[in-house]
Request: fold
Amino acid sequence: MKSFIQIYKEAKNKIVGIAAAPGIVITKAYLFNKEKIEINNGEITDIEEAKRNLEEAIAKSKKELNKIFSLAKEKMEATRAAIFEAQLMILDDPVLLSNINLRIEKERKQPEYIVNDEISKYQQLMILSHESYMAERASDIEDIKNRIIRNLQKKRWQSKIISDLIVISENLTPADTILFSRCNVQGFITDHGGLTSHAAIISRSLNIPAVVGTHNATKHIKDGDTLIVDGFHGYILVNPSQDQIDYFNNKIEKLSELQAGLKELKDKPATTTDGREITMLANVDVTGEIDLVITNGAQGIGLYRTEQVLEELGEFPSENEQARIYSNLSARVYPSPLTIRAFDIGGDKFKFFAFDEPNPFLGLRGIRLLLENITLFKTQIRAVLKASKNKNIEYMLPMVSTISEIRRAKQLIEECKKELIQEKEIFDKNIKIGIMIEVPSAALMTYELALEVDFLSIGTNDLIQYIMAVDRGNDLVSDLYQEFHPSVVRTLYHIVKEADRAHKTVSLCGEMAADTLAIPLLVGIGIHHLSISPSILPYTKRIIRSLSFEKTKKLAEACLTCSTEKEITEKLDKFFKDNSITRTRNII
Ligand code: PEP
Ligand code: MG
Reply:
């Protein structure tokens, strides 16, 4: 059977976008064309009537949003549904409302013109920030603006469609996404939007395959076209051939068989056939993923990227707000551990905290930035400690490159503990402190660093970029981003050996652990824990359960003698074939 790569390479009827929510679906298209809103900027004669109309339109918008909010709460996790709560809050913003009312009095123009103008000003500011996150939020605001204007014009909004279709639109607001889900929509395709667009996030929460950011899907797809949407790889096939339909039907069948089989593994350990158990942890980026952590049988959270909270909220939450978020998460996974990683800001992450650095990836990032911003760091440490009452929280420091960074961070943690004791707060006084090994200097000094902390976690995403001197996000040099380069494999081996010598656990939480090809090698090298995206966890567990630890050790030894990436990947491929293990990648 052909691989996906071959299928897509040959296909002339493909549209490429960003894989926003996993799953494959084949059905008909529904082109959702939003009616263009015409704004009347005419003069008004009756100011009081205009203000009354505005008040009614806002009340109606609130009623609609409240309905969507309760629908969202039924369908998805509370944190996700909060998008709509935030929109409701804008409708209650006294400054915005009084500005609009004042302008109606002064300019005597139609309220819809003033609403459009006033809210567009906010949007412009957000778009001009050039941050993809802010630009996405600007499109959420567009939704509220249009809702008020439509209600001022007393028009109805179409959100009901024939059931079981794939919706294609230039853009989708979170409200559209939720409302369409009532009609059992099978998939979403948009011209605009990225992975952080709320439509993408909501599709993931609702388990509806989605491909976003296609640029021109609405131009190439017509109502009633048959489509194949592949939310794993970000491709759409328009009016597919019978061969293509057969190929993807086969994939869908395999996928559902695999998923049924994987469910049975949920409560079984990831133990090799000869008894070596690997602890399976989950990486959590957005709080919505927590349900998957539980349903997919993770033994805890190995990496909670707290900078994602900043991305979601768009600002630094207060100490108590952070403590509440961390406490909730710790309660959800209790008694399993929750590894909270200190804000890893800098590099390409959370650019609100903007510095102009010539080489941001080599600049003020992770622990370096936190040690330069003690108040920010201490706020998080205090919040983590306050949330640690259940004693299942661990705290991990990113981007460590020297021992003195660890010592300074530990000093600050002790300071916070003393303050909290004085404030009579209850917390875990023996909270475990760990570090990420993701910089070559830390990797080389693993033993010495390990003596300073309770645990280590290898961040291969960064470690590979720094070992190979290749920007992890730069397409021009992506060939050099080689997770199986001998230097990478040898470094991983060194880290595990040195962690063992220091009697410290070592986990691996980079994307390498999500590549099924890497699993036998990582097991053979002796990694203790793997932390991966919860949706991939069952696939990895299935592979580990079919491995012999003794054989993987031999495989690792052989890989350590290789001089090129190719030699290593060939050995790994052969290992899968010789041992008749199916790799997930061959299925999805
Ligand atoms: C890593 O670098 O491998 C890692 C897990 O951290 P992040 O991807 O958040 O930088
Ligand atoms: Mg990293």
User: Anything to note?
Assistant: The chain has three domains: 4-34+159-256, 47-152, 267-578. The domain at 47-152 is CATH 1.10.274.10 (Enzyme I; Chain A, domain 2). The longest strand covers residues 24-31. Residues 398, 438, 459, 461-462 surround magnesium ion (ligand 2) (CB under 6 Å).
